[in-house]
């Protein structure tokens, strides 16, 4: 274990609380120019804690996208292939996005327990320096500037999990501090 935890906390692996999968893969000629169908979000749509819809987003027809990768409330998104400085860039999906998914170079982290406090706690935990250092340690360099985060290795991340009530308190405190920064 990485360190001792307070009473009531326990260690678990990321794979014990979620599924991790990638988004849609497609050929450039399969995209549609009309803004209809399924919007495909890429790494550039993900800012820390903010999902950005862009004018240059691409779209696929619905028949090209599997239903199980459509974005759902509480999903956490992070680039799977990115620059070193963007490792750990995460965002939480705040509500179901019925006609939206991510591209094949982005991970969808979908928790088994559908709970906003758990998903926010995991979002903030995965965005912490402790976890970013872990993610950097498991990446493989791909080409000149990109790093691949391996799904299997990411799934082994060891997470400190408190009770749901404590998660709520932690998330509330983090969000209070974020509000003061705005």
UniProtKB/TrEMBL annotation:
<keyword id="KW-0680">Restriction system</keyword>
<dbReference type="GO" id="GO:0003677">
    <property type="term" value="F:DNA binding"/>
</dbReference>
<dbReference type="InterPro" id="IPR051212">
    <property type="entry name" value="Type-I_RE_S_subunit"/>
</dbReference>
<dbReference type="InterPro" id="IPR000055">
    <property type="entry name" value="Restrct_endonuc_typeI_TRD"/>
</dbReference>
<dbReference type="Pfam" id="PF01420">
    <property type="entry name" value="Methylase_S"/>
</dbReference>
<dbReference type="GO" id="GO:0004519">
    <property type="term" value="F:endonuclease activity"/>
</dbReference>
<dbReference type="InterPro" id="IPR044946">
    <property type="entry name" value="Restrct_endonuc_typeI_TRD_sf"/>
</dbReference>
<feature type="domain" description="Type I restriction modification DNA specificity">
    <location>
        <begin position="6"/>
        <end position="179"/>
    </location>
</feature>
<protein>
    <submittedName>
        <fullName>Type I restriction endonuclease subunit S</fullName>
    </submittedName>
</protein>
<keyword id="KW-0378">Hydrolase</keyword>
<keyword id="KW-0238">DNA-binding</keyword>
<keyword id="KW-0540">Nuclease</keyword>
<comment type="similarity">
    <text>Belongs to the type-I restriction system S methylase family.</text>
</comment>
<keyword id="KW-0255">Endonuclease</keyword>
<dbReference type="GO" id="GO:0009307">
    <property type="term" value="P:DNA restriction-modification system"/>
</dbReference>
């Amino acid at each position: 274990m990485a360190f001792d935890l307070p009473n009531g906390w326990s260690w678990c692996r990321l794979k014990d609380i979620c599924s991790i999968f990638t988004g849609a893969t497609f050929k450039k000629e399969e995209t549609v120019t009309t803004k209809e169908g399924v919007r495909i979000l890429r790494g550039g749509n993900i800012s820390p804690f903010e999902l950005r819809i862009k004018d240059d987003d691409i779209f696929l027809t619905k028949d090209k996208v599997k239903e199980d990768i459509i974005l759902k409330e509480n999903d956490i998104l992070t680039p799977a292939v990115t620059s070193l400085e963007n490792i750990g860039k995460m965002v939480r999906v705040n509500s179901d996005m019925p006609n939206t998914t991510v591209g094949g170079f982005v991970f969808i982290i979908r928790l088994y327990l559908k709970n906003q406090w758990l998903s926010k706690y995991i979002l903030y935990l995965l965005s912490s320096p402790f976890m970013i250092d872990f993610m950097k340690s498991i990446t493989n360099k791909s080409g000149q500037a990109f790093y691949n985060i391996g799904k299997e290795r990411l799934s082994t991340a060891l997470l400190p999990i408190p009770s749901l009530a404590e998660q709520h308190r932690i998330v509330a405190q983090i969000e209070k501090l974020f509000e003061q920064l705005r």
